[in-house]
Amino acid sequence: MDGDPAVESQLDGFSLILPLPYRIAFILVLGVWAWGLNLHYLHLLKIDVASLIKYPSRSSSSSLPHHQRTYALATTITIPFLFSIFFFWTLTRGKPSAVLAWDFIPQSYLFLLFLLFLIPYKRLSPNGRFRFLTTLKRISIGGIAEAQDGKFGDILLADVLTSYAKVLGDLFVSLCMLLSAGKSSTDKPDRGCGGQYIVPIIISIPSVIRLRQCLIEYMRVRKNPTQHSGWGGQHLANALKYSSAFPVVVLSALQRGYDPNKIGLSETGIFRLWLFFVFLNSFYSFYWDVAKDWDLTLFPSLLSSAFPSVFPPSNTTTSFHSNQVPPAQAHPWGLRPHTHFHTPQIYYTAIGLDLLLRCTWSLKLSPHLDHWNDLEGTIFLLEMAEVVRRWVWIFFRVETEWVRVRSGAPGVDEMLLMPMGR
Q1: Measured at the alpha carbon of residue 217, what is the angle toward residues 216 and 220, in degrees to the nearest 5?
Q2: d(Cα 151, Cα 148) in Å, to the nearest integer?
Q3: From its phi and psi, is residue 210 left (phi > 0), alpha (psi between -120 and 50) or beta?
Q4: What pLDDT, on the 0 to 100 scale, is given for residue 311?
Q5: Among 31, 74, 158, 407, which one is most buried in terms of CB atoms within 10 A?
């Protein structure tokens, strides 16, 4: 088949080097390394992640720290990945026909990766893998534990799944192509495999999971209100944030299979609606990350700077441009009184990065983007960028939870949405 124009036209240079199954595997392995780095740096900051997610503490002082166990697991799954991909490159040598013929090699690694999370091998952090699978099983139907049973861990994992939404869609596409007659899973991805709406549905599942979790939390608050729980409005607002992803996915699917005889809108009209919901989802999510998940005062500070007569600045906030040493109870502009990272610039950089990558991530949720020619490499980079964004988000989300637990105070999301006068 070498030199076959049909094959040459389907496989771009990027797919010859890193076909879809290996791209999926790479991002999954990267996620394990990223979690190890999260645990490691937060450990250096004296933040006890295990206590926040209600994970059992080390049985003895001689036991390896959690981040080292995670690194060991990451190393174990990385070594066969490297062996597999180098073996694949040796066999295929960049020839399109060979890349299509040897598709079972990358699929074999994905199967091995699945097994490594299931086998009861003591040196592969069995407790951690069991906890991961147990949590994944619970949240996969939208469940969420009580606070004392590890609710925070459920929220973290469910939010991570939203960042892996497109990867999950690609995993289905890869398996669908493998099992389809006359197709190869290392060919150019056919994201219509299985039907026009299957992939969009799979991409939406993580957001559905978080939506249901938010509604469960709302019902819990309404059933057993506390002094600091408010009326539950923060959970409804959070549910609305996850709901805003659905129009992006649905309108994108309609654009991909646009049929003027079945849809009562023009293609331009659908695109404009899609673009509106992309911006809504991006900036709503960005606002929630900064103001709710990280408890930062960026938006009140911006309003105070822009309209000081309407929104007077807080007495405990120093100016962003001020060189004066703030009083003991003050905090840097746009941040909060209690922080654990060393300089305010770390927070400002994270805010800017989150804004940038939130916008690109909403575009990545769109299945119709894969119709742009030669964009497989770009789609992969966007998926990678979202893993990086979530990795950064976890640092500040865990730090915020640690501050809340240590102070015993409600989070900013609860305080902002409490009824007036309460």
Answers
A1: 90
A2: 7
A3: alpha
A4: 66
A5: 158
Are 39 and 156 within 8 A, CB to CB?
no
Q: Maximum distance among all alpha carbons in the chain?
A: 75
Per-residue pLDDT tens over the stretch 340-360? 998 999 999 999 999 999 887
Provide DSSP, 337-393: S---SS-HHHHHHHHHHHHHHHHHHHHHT-GGGGGSTT-HHHHHHHHHHHHHHHHHH
Token pair for residue 205? 């599942």
pLDDT in tens, 41-66: 999 999 999 999 998 776 666 678 88
Residue 105: predicted pLDDT: 96
Q: What is the pLDDT of residues 360-390, one digit of tens each?
A: 755 555 555 555 434 788 889 888 999 999 9
Measured between alpha carbons, how far is 240 from 281 in angstroms, rounded to an integer? 10
- CA 322, chain centre distance (Å): 35
Between CA 191 and CA 275 the distance in angstroms is: 21
Token match 């973290």: residue? 156
Token readout for 316 is 């405990």
* Distance (Å, whole) CA 93 – CA 195: 33
Q: Which tokens is 64 given?
A: 């390896």
| Lookup: tokens for 171 | 């995993």
What distance in Å separates the CA atoms of residue 134 and residue 410, rounded to the nearest whole number?
A: 28
Distance CA 153, CA 245 (A): 23
